[in-house]
């Protein structure tokens, strides 16, 4: 099958003392992790094209497209890391099983990781760090999620009865176990993404934050419109020709509405924040919130030497990353505000300011998440009180924000979003650097359930 | 992939029935498999008196390939092939005994046997009698091929420009015609000239170390071309439109190559192909223009988009890519383009397609000297009826008739087209340039 000889994951020429990282702020003894490229399948709204596709099928498809793009057949990759937020218990080795179903060498190790919506980016950070430390020469990071094929759990009452029955020795004991089941126990529990500690959905949490920051409906719809327009333009320009491989006959993200307009968005009824006292008219609609989505994505990372040995292109470096968490339960910060905390720490460690970035990739969980994030960084009081900064972090140039669209248009298959954003950012900085002859930088920010956030800096090589 | 009719008339009760009813009984063609013998039996080499020296030379070459070579037409064997050497024939009357000797063994030609003629092309300045004898071979071979049965084929090598009978490309072509690789090539005469090239070190891997690009590789004939190129040693870059990426990835992963999602009608398609091949694989040696579309309509009902898109994909894209590749000074480039028998014989409802495919033949001939100036070649392959998703969409009755309208009474396979392309793309075929090789089972229409 594969003509290329399976290669040793830790290539000889790159072993020994790792090459020094180009980043002057990197710790001593750490080398660069570069981004070679990415591949995802088109994202599809729940219940449509991928209605009966499993996470494993989708992630395998994303992997196969990556293997084909970069000629990785039979290659032993250092590690494949990824995960899914909504996961069947049988998928305990989801990523490894996907690798075994792919054209990669079966000797490629893999593991599952999960950090809610930050899963994909966290996977890339983990892979990059292994590369930077010289533990692996190459790695694939990614994620997959399906809401259509999500696990359905049984009620606690039925679960206990089933367990008791399976432990029972006699028929009578077995029947007795089931006798305890109440009709209400027979209702399946669909997976909830509600916050376990507050019982509120993510949308309701964000509605509180949106209201607190006074983000208007018009401003949110504007973000949503830009997302659709930017993503449509990127598709039309062929930007995704080497980032996406079709799956099950779907060739484009099917949540994308190239023809949406301010008027159309303005017509939609609010869905979150209806129980809040303020504002009188809730602002968050299905148009400015991400839809439930199915999809999978992958990113190929490597040491510069590994990429060079295989004549692979290099788009960018994954320079550094920072995660954060907020106390949304007892504290007063919003559920999705963690990246607001992570970014100042990340910038400080790398001697960077917001002005130093050519692109900002801020995950659009909701249009208002992006807007509250931007508002918080401009707010002197918040920056002082919550972030401990002497002055506001600064403003994000809206011209540089999500220039090729983001989750509002593409959709948001939770764990797959990080890979989508990272590959997009890497390609953007590479193109910008090629055009200007100067280094280009992107800041990535992804909020996640549980008050989590992951952020990263990507820089052209 | 053998059609169900062909299967039925070759096995069990239905075979007996078909025989009794005198139904056409297409043979199951022998296809190339690594390790199988080159021919299905001994090879008879016959020649007219003047060509005996060339016949001896060729017989020695065949012995070197491990074949059982005979010089006498005996009736104690099932012949695998007959090689009819008429290279030094001077007058029409010279060929009689050699031709009749060939005829004397045809009843004992094995299933999937081969008849190959070797003659010289009639050239300007030939004496009329010489030109008559040389050109006569053309009509002889095409007629003979129609008489052959049971999967046997007849093809001819026409030597040009004084090439020696054991010239590299002559031998490469002879081997192709004798082998199972040419299963669906029938009734064809291929002009072959001198070549500044060597025979392959390993006949099973003539493309070892070469980098080949195939457009339209996601499915059908293109996918088969990619697989055959890879089987014969090439590293393959698989190109198709982004929307066909899923199939493209499958092909690329099956052949250990790379997938390049690219519309060949893009202005810079040639440059992007070259850049990909060079940066990722170090060179570009072969380009196969296979991407093609059909938009059938009677001309009276033809919409501008139907005409224009067919011309853009099937013809203009090839021209532009060739210009960009040859213009960037790629050396030794082998270009193989997909034409079609529709471009030779014409087809109702296919004025656009016929124009595009005849156009391919035109530009192939015109590109040949340009390619040769850079040490390369430009050739075309014209498939007849090939069993693919494209032809599977033809209504049953039309399809059933179409696939029988050739000497082999069946449709070809994508792999048959691929074998011809790989042959033309191989280094040893350097002496074949500006030609159109038909892979059509000797379709009854056209040449
Ligand atoms: N099947 C036959 O009987 C037959 C006969 C004669 C000639 N041909 C020729 O052989 C070639 C392959 O035919 P097939 O039967 O495999 O057809 P097919 O339709 O199965 O495959 C053609 C491939 O070309 C691709 N393609 C189309 N437009 C493209 C573009 N602009 N850029 C890149 N790729 C593009 C398609 O996506 C598809 O994968 C065509 O040129 C066709 O005209 C076929």
TrEMBL record, chain A:
SUPFAM superfamilies documented for this protein: Thiolase-like
Keywords from the UniProt entry: Acyltransferase, Transferase
UniProt-recorded Gene Ontology molecular function terms: acyltransferase activity, transferring groups other than amino-acyl groups
Matches recorded under InterPro entries: 3-ketoacyl-CoA_Thiolase, Thiolase, Thiolase-like, Thiolase_C, Thiolase_N
GO cellular component annotations of the record: cytosol
Domain Thiolase C-terminal, first and last residues per copy: 313-459
All copies of domain Thiolase N-terminal, residue ranges: 34-304
Region (Disordered): 1-28
Pfam families per UniProt: Thiolase_C, Thiolase_N
NCBIfam families listed in its UniProt record: AcCoA-C-Actrans, PRK09268.1
Entry-linked PANTHER family: ACETYL-COA ACYLTRANSFERASE FADA2 (3-KETOACYL-COA THIOLASE) (BETA-KETOTHIOLASE)-RELATED
Family from the record: Belongs to the thiolase-like superfamily. Thiolase family.
Protein name: Acetyl-CoA C-acetyltransferase
From TrEMBL, chain B:
Entry's Gene Ontology molecular function annotations: oxidoreductase activity, acting on the CH-OH group of donors, NAD or NADP as acceptor
Gene3D superfamilies named among the record's database cross-references: NAD(P)-binding Rossmann-like Domain
Pfam family, one: adh_short_C2
Entry-linked SUPFAM superfamilies: NAD(P)-binding Rossmann-fold domains
Domain of life: Bacteria
Residue intervals of the Ketoreductase domain: 210-389
Position of the signal peptide: none
NCBIfam families: PRK08261.1
PANTHER family in the cross-refs: 3-OXOACYL-[ACYL-CARRIER-PROTEIN] REDUCTASE [NADH], SHORT-CHAIN DEHYDROGENASES/REDUCTASES FAMILY MEMBER
Family: Belongs to the short-chain dehydrogenases/reductases (SDR) family.
UniProt-recorded name of the protein: 3-oxoacyl-[acyl-carrier protein] reductase
Native species: Krasilnikoviella flava
